[in-house]
Amino acid sequence: MAVTVVGSIAFDAVKTPFGERERMLGGAAVHFALAASFFDEVRVVGPVGDDFGEAEFAVLGTRGIDVSDVERVPGETFFWAGEYGWDLNTRETLDTRLGVFETFEPKLSQAARDSEVLFLANIQPDIQRAVREQCTGARFAALDSMNLWIDIARDSLVSAIGSVDCLVLNDAELKQLTNKPNMIKAAREILSWGGPSAIIAKQGEYGATLITKQNFFSLPAFPLEDVVDPTGAGDTFAGGFVGYLAANGGSGDDEQVLRRAMAYGTALASFNVEEFGTERVARLTGDEVAARVRELGRYTNFTDTPVALRG
Ligand code: AMP
């Protein structure tokens, strides 16, 4: 099943306590596509400026990602700068320059419109909506966003969320979006809107939680001692999650498939944070992913046996 993704295609400047990069390939759609490419054909939609070179395209090319819906236009590629302190769960955005996204009006190819699976990665909600409307063939659509868009484009974002089956958001952003003090309450509120039937709360180094009307499933992050740069972990998680779903029926109806998809997302995200930007995932192998999923399964599995409890 083919997966189409729209979202930022970017240059990132990132500083963490373990080093920095002044300008590296990034963007929500890029991180997503690299991860999803382990499962299926992936097609990226979005604009890049004339500063986006062959070296950047080559990173996508080596994983067989279809870039025929990436438009090169005059101007600057989306640019984001951020800095992390010792607590890698929180970061400060130092700069966001939309560049060529400012005037982008998506016009998708027929192949992209026909994709069975669609991911609306983080970018202006108006763009997410325009792409959702064009992708009439999508049987499963998911969406990610962030605090900036909740702050400046809430109504459009709520409308975009209403058009997808699954919402992926940080726990803090779920609370911000719904004005609820608790992540579960926030997810239940969004489920009551009648749009998505599955909510994934990303919790950084603490993992991710899936909340549906009937069920609840939580996985910790893969335990790592050395985390170098968390940028793109959420998008990489989403790429693994959605990619796995696409390769296994393409719908969010089967609870066990959803849970396994969470495991693949978690494993892929753990590789992403081991090095800066796309560096680790770009040279990752399927065997390495499979081994980490098995290890995660060992760490998170337990069997209850009846015991006599006092009281
Ligand atoms: P994550 O760490 O998963 O939240 O994703 C980080 C990626 O999102 C970076 O590569 C940035 O280029 C991109 N990004 C940062 N801010 C925005 C924004 N406002 N809209 C879209 N993408 C963004």
List the helices and strands and how they pair.
Blueprint: E1 3-6, E2 10-16, E3 19-26, H1 28-36, E4 42-48, H2 54-62, E5 70-72, E6 78-84, E7 91-97, H3 110-113, E8 117-120, H4 125-134, E9 140-144, H5 147-152, H6 154-161, E10 166-170, H7 171-178, H8 183-191, E11 198-202, E12 208-212, E13 216-219, H9 233-247, H10 255-272, H11 279-282, H12 286-300
Parallel strand pairs: 1-4, 1-8, 2-6, 4-5, 8-9, 9-10, 10-11
Antiparallel strand pairs: 2-3, 6-7, 11-12, 12-13
Helix pairs in contact: 1-9, 4-6, 7-8, 9-10, 10-12
Adenosine monophosphate binds near residues 80, 148 and 235.
Name the structural class: alpha/beta
Oligomer: single chain
Major β-sheet strand ordering:
5-4-1-8-9-10-11-12-13
Ligands, ions, cofactors: adenosine monophosphate
What is the percentage of strand-forming residues?
Answer: 15-25%
List low-pLDDT spans. none
Task: Write up what this structure looks like.
- This protein is an alpha/beta fold.
- It is 37% helix and 23% strand.
- It has helices at residues 28-36, 54-62, 110-113, 125-134, 147-152, 154-161, 171-178, 183-191, 233-247, 255-272, 279-282, 286-300, and strands spanning 3-6, 10-16, 19-26, 42-48, 70-72, 78-84, 91-97, 117-120, 140-144, 166-170, 198-202, 208-212, 216-219.
- The strands form 2 sheets. It has a 9-stranded mixed sheet with strand order 5-4-1-8-9-10-11-12-13, sandwiched between helices. A 4-stranded mixed sheet has the order 3-2-6-7.
- Helix 2 links the parallel strand 4 (42-48) and strand 5.
- The longest helix has 18 residues, at 255-272.
- The radius of gyration is 19 Å and the shape is globular.
- The N and C termini lie far apart (53 Å).
- The mean pLDDT is 96.
- Bound molecules: adenosine monophosphate.
- Adenosine monophosphate (AMP) binds at residues 8, 10, 12, 26-28, 80, 96, 122-123, 146, 148, 231-235.
- Adenosine monophosphate binds next to strand 2 and helix 9.
